[in-house]
Amino acid sequence: MMMTDDEIARLIRGLAAARGWSESYAARRATGSGDTLDRIERGVSLTMRRANRVMTNIARLWPDDKPMPPSVAAVSASGVAA
User: Dihedral sign, CA of 65, 71, 72, 75?
Assistant: First the structure.
C-alpha cells in the first residue's frame, strides 16, 4: 500500500495522540527526525524507502491497547509496508 506524505503525517499525529507524546517526539521516534511533519507541510516529500521504514516504525510503536488504523494494521500484519 502506497501512502502519501499527508497520510503518513496524519499517522504520525495519530501515534502522538495514541501514545500521549508530542508530535515532534512521535515524528522523531517514527522517522529519526523531529521536524519531519514540518518538512511535509512545506512540501518536501519522503522517499519511498523512507516512507516504508516510517510505516514499519509506526506499526512497531503503536500501543497495544489502542485501535490501530487499517493502514498501520496492514503493515503490522505483514511486517512490511507494501
Answer: positive
C-alpha cell at 62: 503503536
Nearest to 82 by CA among 61, 58, 57, 55: 55
Using alpha carbons, select from 32, 21, 66 the residue that is nearest to residue 76.
66
- Please report, for the chain, the start and end positions of each structural domain, with discontinuous segments joined by +: 5-78
Mark out the alpha helices in 32-79 (DSSP H runs). Answer: 36-41, 48-61, 70-78
Sign of CA dihedral 49, 10, 19, 65: negative
pLDDT per residue as tens digits for the range 24-75: 999 999 999 989 999 999 999 999 999 999 999 999 999 999 988 888 877 7
